[in-house]
Amino acid sequence: MDPDGYLLRFAEDLREKECPRYISSCILKEFKLKNGQTLVLRKPIVEDAKMIVEYLYTVGGESDNLLFGKDESYFTAEMEIEHIKNINESETSSMVLGIINNNIVSIAQISSPNRKRIAHNSEVAISVKKDYWKNGIGSCIMEELIKSVKDGGIIKNISLGVKASNKNAIAMYEKFGFEKIGKHKDFFNINGDFDDEILMDLYI
């Protein structure tokens, strides 16, 4: 909790004083999309916290392919600030934001456990705002995530779960070399309609 608003004030101060320098140093890559727009991929900074919370609230109500629905994202801006700080300090976990015209249109994250024996394993999650579907954003971000994993040299396996009926996502993952390794039957319950979760792995 942040009863005195310290973390938010800190983020606002950082935005005013140092945001341009931080943003330029956090940019990973730029892509020209199918619709002609420029997608900027970059690491998150603490002043992104409010926009990330708003983004998660939006996408939860747009898609049945995520693990959470409308009003089921419980992160606050204060919690997100702490999450950003922690993930930017991690050697095996990372978050990538997809930005178009200064708006977050996609978020992806790779997470690995801290335990040494299993730290080479990771899980990936990607979401894209509905207005930007079918523009190749998921592929752009996946390409950058896999590159960062290979450059890091620690992670050897990337795992994910995907709704069985989400054929477009499955095809994209297979394009990058992910293999189906199993499934969780009736894992998703969308308003009483059940669907399996397909489990996929990419071995680096």
How is the CATH topology named?
Aminopeptidase
Give the percentage of residues in beta strands.
25-35%
Q: What is the count of structural domains?
A: 1
CATH class: Alpha Beta
Q: SSE string, helix = H, strand = E?
A: HEEHHEEEHEHEE
Overview in brief:
By secondary structure, the chain is an alpha+beta fold.
Q: Could you explain how this protein is built, in words?
A:
The protein is of the alpha+beta class and 204 residues long. It has one domain (6-203): Aminopeptidase (3-Layer(aba) Sandwich). It is 35% helix and 32% strand. It has five helices and eight strands; from the N terminus they run αββααβββαβαββ. The protein has helices at residues 6-26, 49-60, 77-89, 137-152, 167-175, and strands at 27-32, 38-42, 94-100, 103-111, 121-128, 157-163, 179-190, 193-203. Strands 1-2-3-4-5-6-8-7 form an eight-stranded mixed sheet, with helices on both faces. Helix 2 (49-60) packs across helix 3 (77-89). It starts with 5 loop residues before the first helix and ends with a strand. Residues 6-20 have low confidence and may be disordered.
Q: SSE layout and pairings?
A:
Layout: H1 6-26, E1 27-32, E2 38-42, H2 49-60, H3 77-89, E3 94-100, E4 103-111, E5 121-128, H4 137-152, E6 157-163, H5 167-175, E7 179-190, E8 193-203
Parallel strand pairs: 5-6
Antiparallel strand pairs: 1-2, 2-3, 3-4, 4-5, 6-8, 7-8
Helix pairs in contact: 2-3
